[in-house]
Amino acid sequence: MDASSSPPLTAQSTVAVELAGITKRFPGVVANHDIHLTVRKGTVHALVGENGAGKSTLMKILYGMQKPDEGTIAVDGEQVSFSSPADAIARGIGMVHQHFMLADNLTVLENVVLGSEKLYGIGGAARKKIKEISDRYGLGVRPDLLVEDLGVADRQRVEILKVLYRGARTLILDEPTAVLVPQEVDALFANLRELKSEGLCVIFISHKLGEVLSVADDITVIRRGTTVGTAIPSETTPRQLAEMMVGSELPTPETAESTVTDRAVIEVRNLTVFATGGGSLGFEDEPSAGGLTEFASAGEAKRVLDDVTFTIHAGEVMGIAGVEGNGQTELIDALIGTKSADSGTIAFLGEDITPWPTRRRREQGVGYIPEDRHRQGLLLESPLWENRILGHVTERPNAKGFWLDPKGAQADTRRIVEEFDVRTPGIDVTAASLSGGNQQKLIVGRELSHDPKFLIAAHPTRGVDVGAQAQIWDRIRQARREGLAVLLISADLDELIGLSDTLRVIYDGRLVADADPAAITPEELGSAMTGAASGHLEHVETATEDEADAGPEDEAR
Questions:
Q1: Fewer CB within 10 Å, N or C, the chain?
Q2: CA geometry: angle 105, 109, 110, nearest 5 deg
Q3: pTM beyond cutoff 0.70
Q4: Would you say the C-alpha torsion 266, 309, 325, 466 has a positive or negative sign?
Q5: How many independent structural domains does the chain possess?
Q6: Which residue segment(s) compose the domain that 111 sits in?
Q7: Please, is 58 exposed, middle or buried when counting C-beta atoms within 10 Å of its C-beta (0-12, 13-18, 19+)?
Q8: What per-residue confidence (pLDDT) applies to 26?
Q9: Which helix (H) or strand (E) holds 174?
């Protein structure tokens, strides 16, 4: 690693993009300070740093969403000034945001051509171009399906295609592997290598340092808003890179002991949920997605959750592994009460809560970390202390009797900010002003602050850095030791294996196998999620009466 110089440039490695002395200030915050970044053509250039280090702000500057207060931008050796993303797109720069910029009520084709109708129109020529790009990079996009019917991973593919459709030569990918299983990551990296071979370059932002080291040609590290050095992937380990990001040595993780008890907290029996038509994932040639891709016709009822049975005990984390779109979202909706089950029951601490509304479930001790913090977990234009109230409007310290208690909520927001290391200039700034990782820490702090008995944790560390990830894991482990029951749904297979006491595989809306977290590898788990067999899996045909009556000695494997 070299903490002071950039990678050497040769005549064969021409500079595509160069940022010099970039500084950006917001009220009370210096997001970027004198940042330097040089990206070579035909390379993947990784940009890493802690949450709030300034990565997203820097990329928004490059993409024309923000103007720097100081510094210069050069593209293909020519100094430029961007006033909008349209200016950046015109110079061949495209960005796929961590939180996607798609219109749910439009089709894939309409989203791709929106704002670029002059390129290929909105009809046959556009469809032909979309198919050409889709086939060339293996995206498998079906242009006529509504975006609202797509899973998170599939929306990402639409975003990548949208950028390529506009002729991007430099692609900014913000956390592109956050929702992908290992096989899909391999496919994405193969696509990136194809882009490189054609002289395109990719700026790759990720907190998965192993992936960064495997795909990047060059790595730039920023810390607290400024460039602190570069790393050569072949000469660097994930731990060294992480310590470079945080500026100190990382603690060695402790060995966790089992905390599973015999007290059932959540008992789900024969839970079935139907969806009506059009629920295909929207992508061709995608066997990994399971049977949910194959609705017979629009309007046909489809079991998106099929006869699901499980029990989670106090002190137990049960992980659910599955490719996006195999029923995880419907399971979450049924458990939190935002969607009614078509059949089956849900019992909480021995009481049937199947007919309960969401508010009652929340008030009785069901916590919820949503899979999409922007759409489901935050009011982005509201201050942090108002976001602290969400989901807990009737509970202390947010309320006194029938009345809201702003002072109580504000005081507790300050506690959460300090205790969960939410980096912010104050509690009156909007949630939108925080980095994604700090938004996530605020949500985790909010949910754990009400001492839930059962926590639904959907992708709890998506988009957070290694330090914040460790903090969130420690908080979940601590709450588990105190008797919390957790349903963990995550695309991070290391997270699933590392946190879970029991691990189930969901495929086509059914729990099809049990895995031993102590024995299975991420690669084996990834294969199981696509329907393949593994030596460390116990395959389950149906939820039997014996399973429904099983005790912790049977389920806490």
A1: N
A2: 50
A3: no
A4: positive
A5: 2
A6: 15-246
A7: buried
A8: 85
A9: strand 170-174
